[in-house]
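Human: Here is a favour to ask of a fellow structure person. Comparing notes only helps if you start from a blank page. I am asking you to supply a protein in sequence and structure-token form. Write it directly below this note and I will take it from there.

Assistant:
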Amino acid sequence: MIVLSVESSCDETSVSISKDGKTILSNIVLSQIDVHKTYGGVVPEIASREHVKGITLVFEEALQAANITKDEVDLIAVTKGPGLIGSLLIGVNAAKAFALANDIPIVGVHHIAGHIYANHITKDLVFPLVCLVVSGGHTELILMKDHYDFQKLGETYDDAVGEAYDKVARTVGLGYPGGPIVDQLAHQGEATYPMPNIDQKDSYDFSFSGLKSHIINLVHNIHQRNETLNVENLCASFQEVVSDVLVRKSVKAIKEFDAKMFIVAGGVAANKGLREKIDKEIHDVEVVVPNFEYCTDNAAMIGIAGYFQYMTSKKTDDMTLNGFSRVKLME
């Protein structure tokens, strides 16, 4: 089965061609990072316009790179949400137009399901498994007992971990996107600054707003006292407490549900500090982390998820398919 997939939930315009839920024939990603750097973050209206400018070209490039024609496509998969509604609608409507013009069935895919199934590109999923979802908008622990069987064990009460990284970066003037910069600087410093306990007792839930506020106050007080802020050590201190709570709750879930595999999903899966913590603390279970190119938003992951969604349910969507800024994983 050949799947053409589309991802446009935020600031990447991406189209991919995949085969049989495993092999990636092409994965074209048109990033807007340079466009949004000036504003210190993604501007929704600008993101939508950039998607309009690039979507047709990305379709054509993906088909050419895969060396297939539109007649060989068996299924269309497109991100339906969650995400920026204007951005989502560009991808959804482009996918529906392509599906309607070429009489190809279409499925709307949850963005987080895509991040989860990015791991399948690297290694076949083995169940039961525990998945740690870490991205700019999501922090969740999910149990899967089979394909497309998602049970949420816990989630963030407030900020997602990627959002916390970006806010810390802005607080100390590191620019955008902040997550990779904080990760890089953390490896150059030591965890010398005191950080609050952010463990949510015995639950699988997370909370990062208190940590964010603590760092904002810490930086403010240092400046008020005319002291020197060691940015590298601050980043190391922040990253240590964040990676510790993420991995500690993951280990607990792995043991409680006797998981055979542990996977990481989302853009923060590219974080080297988190990967090192996982390597150090998680043993006796197969650990899979996507290749760096599949950690951030891309259409290949949507194609793999769409394939398994269709093979599991045998259901497709019609031309009323829409984009949703918020949508539950199992909807």
About this structure: The two ends are 24 Å apart (CA to CA). Residues 231-256 form the longest helix (26 residues). The longest strand covers residues 23-31.
